[in-house]
Amino acid sequence: MKILATRRYPGPAFEELGDVEILPLSSLERPRPDVEGLVVANEALPLDLLPGLRVVANFGVGYDRIDVAACAERGVVVTHTPGVLDAATADLTLALILAARRRVVEGDRLVRSGGWTGSWADSGLAEELTGATLGVVGLGRIGSAVARRARGFDLRVLYTRRRQVDTDLGKFRELDELLAESDVVTIHVPLTPETDGMLDARRLALLRDGACLVNTARGEIVVEAALVAELVSGRIRAGLDVFVREPEVPRELLGLANVVLTPHLGSATRQAREAMTRLVADNLLAVERGEPPLTPVPS
Ligand code: DGY
Q1: What are 264-278's pLDDT values in tens digits?
Q2: What is the enclosing helix (H) or strand (E) of 60?
Q3: 188 — phi, psi (to 5°)?
Q4: Are 50 and 21 in contact (CB under 8 A)?
Q5: Is the pLDDT of residue 123 over 90?
Q6: What is the pTM of this model?
Q7: What are phi and psi of 51, to 5 degrees?
Q8: Would you name the residues annotated as active-site residues?
Q9: Which residues are 160's β-sheet partners?
Q10: Which residues are bridge partners to 245 per DSSP?
């Protein structure tokens, strides 16, 4: 099976794919009927240029930029990589919560700039994380991994989910209640038409003064202009790993001490990324053998 991959994906499993051509989709200018398999990282697909396509293997769990319906119409299978990046993303979420809440990056900048001149007793005061209330928006695989880690910090966990479940990970709340009741809110829902813009200005205004919002899911879930306004006002804090127009980040955020910014690092551990490539390869190889893929996206 002729495979086109938009980059060399990390890990040894990539070598198991025989006939692979590395080509960014922006360089695909003429029809390529020879290509049957495509590896992308949540990218829009030029389906008209790939008439022989049988399978799209997405390197990542989120596939919001892939037109799954158009693929289904053409009989193209789409796969993704759920599960293997839960731990990495949950770990980064905790890192952002701690960094934003305990002013870690602000402190680092102060030390590097030579601005740390007084006594430790005079500066750096922050709100404690231990014992705070954590609101998990979306108690799926990653949200649950975050909730399990929250136990180590004695956090009281609230969660939203499409359907309330019987779980000891936290207590169910409707979204508005969760926002109003939490000290830290962390987002773990996929980007869909229902979640696009879900945290708008009205909902952000429900957050407590001094609350911390962490987003390792998708930038579009929060109305970015409204979030920027809240952060510029200094009313809330945030740890943001995702943005609406990556790699662009709203300029207003760059100088703010109350926000920690990371470049979409959620799954960026060697272990997670190599496991993602493993799953990409296993899905492609299964389709090549005429077997059902391991982790198809629901269509
Ligand atoms: C995903 O898998 O959707 C992530 O955004 C990559 O970290």
Answers
A1: 999 999 999 999 999
A2: none
A3: -140, 40
A4: no
A5: no
A6: 0.97
A7: -70, -20
A8: 218, 246, 264
A9: 137
A10: none
